Every structure is written in structure tokens, then in C-alpha cells.
Amino acid sequence: xxxxxxxxxxxxxxxxxxxxxxxxxxxxxxxxxxxxxxxxxxxxxxxxxxxxxxxxxxxxxxxxxxxxxxxxxxxxxxxxxxxxxxxxxxxxxxxxxxxxxxxxxxxxxxxxxxxxxxxxxxxxxxxxxxxxxxxxxxxxxxxxxxxxxxxxxxxxxxxxxxxxxxxxxxxxxxxxxxxxxxxxxxxxxxxxxxxxxxxxxxxxxxxxxxxxxxxxxxxxxxxxxxxxxxxxxxxxxxxxxxxxxxxxxxxxxxxxxxxxxx
Length: 262
Fold this sequence. Notes:
This protein is mainly α and 262 residues long. It is built from 8 helices and no strands. 31% of the residues are buried.
């Protein structure tokens, strides 16, 4: 699977980086939540847990490459149709989409706090925070069940990523629509947040004026990272809809690079 040694190194580093940092952050946030409830920390903890599952996917692919590197025929024929390959694809799908929806929920919370309640102390209740996280998992799990039931396309790449030719036309349409809506919602919310903060800074709020550059940098990083992670994957889905396909090896490399990046 991994003909490029740099890709192999990238996967090892990504798997360790994702697992160690997210596990450490999740435990640290859980300790803080045990002492005092905070909805932002709860959302971040959920995000760490969802991202940590990406390390499981990368580890499974690395183990496969180590075990079957001397038997490429098995990988080419039996692996892509195996239950293990499908499990890998579902883990990766669940990780990246739950991460995206979680980022959307966190952004919506900031939008409500800054735009709708600018001059009052706003904090979500524990019940609302837990409900929103459960809703995000429910949405992604429903989407995953939809993919399992209606994706008639065969897995074409050995990295077991549901992109490009590995998704049927209907599933590709759903994928493009959902991610376009999420990215559009992020752009609208963040642009509105920046306008609200700019307006508040004109009201002689020195604290907001000081923090504005930092907020702009953080929001820009969130938008750019989401776009960077999904742009190439969405382009591959769009290409498959117009019957323009890339070699499976290229799809595998794209999935192994951009999914951990997300």
C-alpha cells in the first residue's frame, strides 16, 4: 500500500501525534470538568475523543502494510472486500465527520454567545451541552448507516477511504451537500462574529479591541483548516460524479494525508 517511505513516516507520526495529544487533552479536560462544569471544555473533550479514533484507523492500516507487504496480491484482491477494510473505512468516516459536526456545534455556541447575547453573561446548561453532543453523534451515525445501506460502489483503494470511486453517485451527492452546508455555515457564523466584535470595539470596549486580532487569527485558522482538509476530498467526489477518475493509488494517498490533517 505504502510505496512512499515519507508517507509511511507521515502515518506513524500522525497516529502517535493524534493519539498522544488528544488523549492527554481529553484526560486533562475531564479532570477540569469533574471540578467545574464548562460547556466549552466539554465540547473540546468530545472533539478530542472523536479525533483520537483517527489514530485507530491509521494504526490498522499500518499493521496491514507491515503484515501483507510481501503479498500484494492479497491486498489488491481480498483486502478491499474484507470486513476489516470496511471497518477501517467506517472508523475514518465516523472520526472526520463527527469532528466536523463538533466544530460546527462549538462555532454555533460562540455565535450565540457573541452575536445574540453580546452584553450579558451567557452559559449553556449542562443538559443542553450534552444534548448537542449526542445530537452530533446521532447525525453522523445516521449518515454512516445511510452510507452502509446505499453505497453500492466497491472499495477501489487499499487505504479503505470512502472517497472518489469508492462512493456511489448518491452518496457522493450527499457528501458534497453536507460538507458544503457545514463550510458555508462556518463562513456565515464567523463573518457575523467578526462584524459583531468590530461593532463592539467601536463602543470603546478596549478588551474586545485587544482580543480582536487573536480572534481573527483563530477563526481564520479554523476556516482554513476545514477548507484544506475537505477541499481535495470534495473535489475527488465531484470528479467521480462526472466519470473522471484518478488511479486508486492516488485516492489512497489523498485519504491518508488529508484525513489525519482534518
